[in-house]
Design a protein that fits this description.
Organism: Moelleriella libera RCEF 2490
Number of helices: 7
CATH class of the largest domain: Alpha Beta
Number of domains: 2
EC number: 6.3.1.2
GO molecular function, one term: glutamine synthetase activity
Strand content: 15-25%
Structural class: alpha+beta
Low-confidence stretches: none
Helix content: 10-25%
Protein name: Glutamine synthetase
Shape: globular
Number of strands: 13
CATH architecture of the largest domain: 2-Layer Sandwich
Bound molecules: adenosine-5'-diphosphate, manganese (II) ion
Mean pLDDT: 96
CATH topology of the largest domain: Creatine Kinase, Chain A, domain 2
Subunit structure: Homooctamer.
Distance between the termini: 38 Å
Radius of gyration: 20 Å
Length: 333
């Protein structure tokens, strides 16, 4: 069984299955191009509705077990142009043009589990939980909910070879985070999208919804981000701090352009409160969680390492984030 997965028009994933003959080790180029009805997903008009699925990455299927596979696919229109929501195609070109810099990314995916009333799972009906404080990295009933989803998702990622590097309960009751990375180039977007598919798929088994919204609850509750950690070959070795500071200079004038790529409804989250920098200005600092970009203390102390772009929203497309970081810093393609 091959589960073809694609990114839809709403920033979610969709999938459908087909049977393949044999059980060889499939690579993307061995797999058939497939298609779906794009008029049902807002990805194509009704009178020309076929959207093509071109396989681009293959993973062992953690739900059905090997030799079954998960096939991440790019969406292409019938006229041979990339679909409007196919951000991978352009991202891959930028990664290839700048491969000499060996860009590594590590994304921190925050998300909120929702009950069927669309409020965070475990929140009292018609009321609110106690103020934030006990929930971040919390242990125990009343502090965290649905750890079974978190654990099953972690194992699903490991089984599939997705480089999940950790997980933790978040500040808002019902919110969690996992990290994927470091991944080089285009594989960052691929792996994050597959990890999101896995999370939605696992939560489905528990009858729980996953919200990727950056501000699931208005008011004095933390939002959800997709902190994007970044380094190049030059930043990771002695003298790297110089390259990190240069990147800050390159990113500053591209602030508005970057924000456009960093997810919907992000203005609700980037208020300058709740451990965020204001959406209005580009700021950076060492160990400061109220800035657009944070240089980890360890990186500043060693003089090389990576930086953390804290601006992207939890619902941002990783292909768009990783691409704009590269073009802002290197200006190529
Ligand atoms: P935080 O302290 O912001 O919560 P996390 O531990 O949640 O940080 O996430 C850190 C992320 O940074 C991980 O995804 C990790 O893979 C990534 N990372 C670590 N080193 C590098 C590096 N040199 N380049 C890019 N990403 C890195
Ligand atoms: Mn984190
Ligand atoms: Mn976090
Ligand atoms: Mn972070």
């Amino acid at each position: 069984m091959a589960e073809y997965v694609w990114v839809d028009a709403t920033g979610g994933t969709r999938s459908k299955s087909r049977t393949l003959e044999g059980d060889k080790e499939y690579k993307p180029e061995d797999l058939p191009v497939w298609n779906f009805d794009g008029s049902s997903t807002d990805q194509a008009p009704g009178d020309n509705s076929d959207v093509y699925l071109r396989p681009c990455a293959v993973y062992p299927d953690p739900f059905r077990g090997s030799p079954n596979i998960i096939v991440l696919s790019e969406c292409w229109n019938a006229d041979g142009t990339p679909n409007k929501y196919n951000y991978r195609h352009e991202c891959a070109k930028v990664m290839e043009a700048n491969a000499e810099h060996e860009p590594w990314f590590g994304l921190e995916q925050e998300y909120t589990l929702l009950d069927h009333d669309d409020r965070p799972f475990g929140w009292p009906r018609g009321g609110f939980p106690a103020p934030q404080g006990p929930y971040y990295c919390g242990v125990g009933s009343g502090k965290v909910v649905m750890r079974d989803i978190v654990e099953a998702h972690y194992k699903a990622c490991l089984y599939a070879g997705v480089k999940i590097s950790g997980t933790n309960a978040e500040v808002l009751f019902g919110q969690w985070e996992y990290q994927v990375g470091p991944c080089e180039g285009i594989s960052m977007g691929d792996q994050l999208w597959i990890s999101r598919f896995f999370l939605s798929r696992v939560a489905e088994d528990f009858g729980v919804k996953v919200s990727w919204h950056p501000k699931p609850m208005a008011g004095d509750w933390n939002g959800a981000g997709l902190h994007s950690n970044f380094s190049t070959k030059e930043m990771r070795v002695e003298g790297g701090m110089k390259h990190i500071e240069e990147a800050m200079k390159k990113l500053e004038p591209h602030h508005v352009e970057c924000i456009k790529e960093y997810g919907e409804d992000n203005a609700l989250r980037l208020t300058g409160r709740h451990e965020t920098g204001s959406i209005e200005h580009f700021t950076w600092g060492v160990a400061n969680r109220g800035t657009s970009i944070r240089i980890p203390r360890e990186t500043a102390a060693k003089g090389y390492g990576y930086f953390e772009d804290r601006r992207p929203a939890s619902n941002a497309d990783p292909y768009r984030i990783t691409k704009i970081l590269m073009t802002s810093i290197f200006g190529k393609l």
